[in-house]
C-alpha cells in the first residue's frame, strides 16, 4: 500500500521560510516523478514543483527563484524548501507520486 505523508506546514510571516517533507512508503521515490501541488478550498490543485527520475526539476512561475524541490533517496522522501513566502502562497500543499498517489496535505499559512 502506497502512503505519502506530508509535514512541515504551519503559520509563517511574509518573507519567512518553511520546509515541507513528504515521506513515502510502498514506493521508491527514486523511480517516480514526484510533485508538490497546492490548492485553496474550492479551487483545483496546481502544480508548484516537480522532480523527475533524472533529477530534472520544474517550477511554476509563481514560485520560481523562491522554492526548491529536492529528493533524498536514502530517506525515501521529497522536500520543498519555501523561502520569501508571500500571503498568496497560503494553501494546502500536497505531495503526489507517479501512479497518481496523493498525501493528505499540509496547511501553509502566510500572514502577519
Query: N-to-C terminal Cα separation, in Å?
Result: 40 Å
Structural class: mainly beta
The biggest beta sheet reads: 7 strands, mixed
Shape label: globular
How many E strands?
11
Structure description:
With 112 residues, the chain is an all-beta fold. Helix content is 0%, strand content 51%. It has no helices and eleven strands. The chain has strands at 3-7, 10-12, 18-25, 34-39, 46-51, 57-59, 67-72, 77-82, 91-97, 101-102, 106-110. Strands 2, 4, 5, 6, 9, 10 and 11 form a seven-stranded mixed sheet that branches. Strand 4 (34-39) and strand 5 (46-51) form a beta hairpin. The mean pLDDT is 96.
Entry summary:
The protein has 112 residues and is mostly beta strands. It has strands at residues 3-7, 10-12, 18-25, 34-39, 46-51, 57-59, 67-72, 77-82, 91-97, 101-102, 106-110.
Task: Give the topology, please.
Elements: E1 3-7, E2 10-12, E3 18-25, E4 34-39, E5 46-51, E6 57-59, E7 67-72, E8 77-82, E9 91-97, E10 101-102, E11 106-110
Parallel strand pairs: 2-11
Antiparallel strand pairs: 1-3, 3-8, 4-5, 4-9, 5-6, 7-8, 9-10, 9-11
Keywords:
11 strands; four-stranded antiparallel beta sheet; mainly beta; seven-stranded mixed beta sheet; 112 residues; globular; single chain
Amino acid at each position: 500500500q502506497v502512503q505519502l505523508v506530508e509535514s512541515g506546514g504551519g503559520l509563517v510571516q511574509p518573507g519567512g521560510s518553511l520546509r515541507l517533507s513528504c515521506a513515502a512508503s510502498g514506493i521508491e521515490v527514486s523511480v517516480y516523478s514526484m510533485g508538490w501541488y497546492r490548492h485553496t478550498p474550492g479551487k483545483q490543485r496546481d502544480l508548484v514543483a516537480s522532480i523527475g527520475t533524472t533529477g530534472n526539476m520544474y517550477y511554476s512561475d509563481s514560485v520560481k527563484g523562491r522554492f526548491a524541490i529536492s529528493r533524498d533517496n536514502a530517506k525515501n522522501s521529497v522536500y520543498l524548501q519555501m523561502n520569501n513566502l508571500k500571503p498568496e502562497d497560503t494553501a494546502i500543499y500536497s505531495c503526489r507520486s507517479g501512479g497518481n498517489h496523493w498525501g493528505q496535505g499540509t496547511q501553509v499559512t502566510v500572514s502577519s
